[in-house]
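Hey, quick one: can you model this chain's 3D structure?
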Amino acid sequence: MERRQFIYGTLASATALSLGIAFWPEPVSIPAPLDEAQQWLFVALIPVVLEGAAPAQRLEQQAPRIAVAVADLIATLPPGVRQQLAQLLGLLQQKLGRLVLTGSMLPLAEQQPTLLSQLLDDWRFHFLELIRTAYAGLRDPIMAVWYGDPANWSALNYQPPSLGGAR
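Sure thing. Here's the predicted structure for all 167 residues.
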């Protein structure tokens, strides 16, 4: 190796290294589970997602409490999942994002339950897997909180197994 090749190689390596460091993405901070607007989105979605699981009036009354439990559940999710959910909720808060995802610029929390139900059905069977994943990201935490609450088990005639010393 000649001295000239060594110098050019060193300069190229230093340049590549400095550019790599300059363009390296900074770690993204994981946002708080839900802000107030995002909680209101879940409050609006809860009666729609849980339709038929309980009387509508009971679901509407319990929706704020369930939304807080959903926020607590989201806080326990892995960072990558929380980040993806935060991106989805952020898109749904922006007018352009809502227009692309829902076809409407009206905030989801202000839409009629029948329109929300139709939107979720459309997302559930959408041809793009990304939209189906967004549907699951909104639906699954609500379902997990509802059916994970022992107070709702009696309506299902579910009897948890006894952990006593049966021999």
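One thing worth noting: DSSP finds seven helices and no strands in the chain.
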